[in-house]
From TrEMBL:
GO molecular function: catalytic activity; iron-sulfur cluster binding; metal ion binding
Keyword Iron-sulfur among record annotations: yes
Protein name, as recorded: Putative DNA modification/repair radical SAM protein
Elp3/MiaA/NifB-like radical SAM core domain span: 59-286
PANTHER family from the UniProt entry: ENDONUCLEASE/EXONUCLEASE/PHOSPHATASE FAMILY DOMAIN-CONTAINING PROTEIN 1, TYPE II SECRETION SYSTEM PROTEIN K
Cofactor(s) the protein requires to work: [4Fe-4S] cluster
SMART domains: Elp3 (SM00729)
Keywords: Iron, Iron-sulfur, Metal-binding, S-adenosyl-L-methionine
Domain of life: Bacteria
InterPro entries: Aldolase_TIM, DNA_rSAM_put, Elp3/MiaA/NifB-like_rSAM, Endo/Exo/Phosphatase_dom_1, rSAM, rSAM_sf, RuvA_2-like
Length: 416
């Protein structure tokens, strides 16, 4: 490998990290250095790209330790047989970069992943050393997310959780068949075993924290995972069911979806075109329905096309479900329970909570509901208010054109 300076390494390894979507920084413990001890904070306002649920923007240095790898996964641009320019940081170089960037107010945290070099244990040791040095040598209190390696020694993964706010282990592909075909060197059972060990360690820490005030923290922001969408034949229904099982079995904070992107010198087993980015977006929306709108996995799957198993791209999954199950609507905003209101297209969780609070004092009219949503047109066929009953709309067979978002057309620059 040719000798590269730090700037050249950063250009290569920051670009190589862009394929990993799971770099949110939410849910961790609050820490700061206002007492004059240590460096960094998980609070405060950042300057780019990673957003917490409360709207705070937290910037992360997102890099790979190295893009060299001993594995040859077909879908990965950094696979062993890929003809890409390689680079590698030492653990100390990553530490120095993180501290330097923080002091210049460029970042407030670190997202660190890596290709596999020498062995999973050796690579995991390097990742842990970065986090350990930041925490213990420099008393860094900012956010750290480590991508762990399921084939590494469990003791090393445990060490990662003691220093990082969040750890993640990628399941890579939605189905066991897809993983065996496209990443034959990876073991699905080993991946899930590592995730189960992290779940157990998080649970043990919570129990210890209830008994001992100074019990060591273990991954206070939990664990997450990522699936590649469109590299294999998995349908949206397959992906939704897989994500649901992962949430239930491993208590994950998030499942991230990354649309497959064609890579140089691609294997013949890969598709020639990437899936529509809207497909990735619809999967995130379906994920949101299960996590915050009390939809069961089979309900989300029911919104997909019965023949292809794919969610529609022109409308969101919630609207698709409502159009399929017209018998559940309209619902009365003044009487319906919370679970029924959450299924009304166009009503979010905050809007539903506002409706439940307001109707304790007065009967709600259509204008009252309109103030809680972006567009009342989407809601009109699905709800009943004090002054509104959609008799004609509710019975229309061609309801979709009335409630689906209008397609935007590019205006001609030199149109007459």
């Amino acid at each position: 490998m040719a000798q590269l300076d730090t700037r050249e390494k950063l250009a290569i390894l920051a670009d190589a990290a862009k394929y990993d979507a799971s770099c949110a920084s939410s849910g961790t413990a609050k820490r700061n250095s206002r007492d004059g001890k240590g460096l960094g904070s998980t609070e405060g306002m950042g300057i780019c790209h990673a957003y917490a649920p409360d709207g705070r923007c937290i910037s992360l240095l997102k890099i790979l330790l190295t893009n060299s790898c001993i594995f040859d996964c077909h879908y990965c641009i950094n696979r062993k047989s890929s003809n890409v320019r390689r680079a590698r940081f030492t653990a100390q170089e990553v530490v120095n970069l993180t501290i330097s960037f923080y002091k210049r107010n460029y970042i407030e945290g670190l997202f660190l992943s890596s290709g596999i070099i020498r062995s999973p244990d050796y690579t995991m040791e390097q990742l842990v050393e970065v986090a350990r040095s930041l925490r213990e040598d420099h008393h860094f209190r900012g956010y750290i997310h480590l991508k762990t390696i399921p084939d590494a020694d469990p003791a090393l993964i445990h060490q990662a959780g003691l220093h990082a706010d969040r750890v993640s282990i990628n399941v890579e592909l939605p189905t066991a068949g897809g993983l065996k075909r496209l990443a034959p060197e990876k073991d699905g059972a080993r991946i899930e075993g590592a995730m189960a060990e992290v779940k157990g360690a998080i649970a043990d820490q919570r129990d210890a924290g209830k008994k001992y005030r100074n019990a060591p923290r273990f991954a206070p922001a939990g664990q997450s995972t990522q699936m590649i969408v469109g590299a294999d034949a998995a349908t949206d229904g397959d992906i939704v069911l897989r994500a649901s099982k992962l949430y239930d079995r491993f208590s994950l904070r998030r499942v991230y979806y990354s649309a497959f992107s064609p890579i140089p010198d691609a294997s013949a087993v890969l598709p020639l075109q990437r899936p529509p980015l809207m497909r990735e977006h619809r999967l995130y929306q379906s994920d949101w329905l299960m996590r915050f709108y009390d939809y069961q996995p089979h309900e989300v799957v029911a919104a997909a096309d019965a023949e292809t198993g794919m969610l529609p791209l022109d409308i969101d999954p919630k609207l698709a479900w409502a159009l399929k199950f017209r018998d559940r609507f309209p619902v009365d905003v003044n009487r319906a329970p919370r679970e029924a209101l959450l299924r009304v297209p166009g009503l979010g969780v905050k809007a539903v909570d506002a409706i439940l609070a307001s109707r304790r004092w007065r009967r709600l009219r259509l204008d009252d509901v309109a103030r809680l949503t972006v567009s009342i047109a989407k809601l009109r066929p699905f709800l009943i208010a004090e002054d509104w009953r959609p008799v004609a709309l509710a019975e229309r067979a061609d309801l979709k054109p009335l409630v689906a978002p209008k397609k935007k057309q590019q205006l001609e620059l030199f149109a007459a």
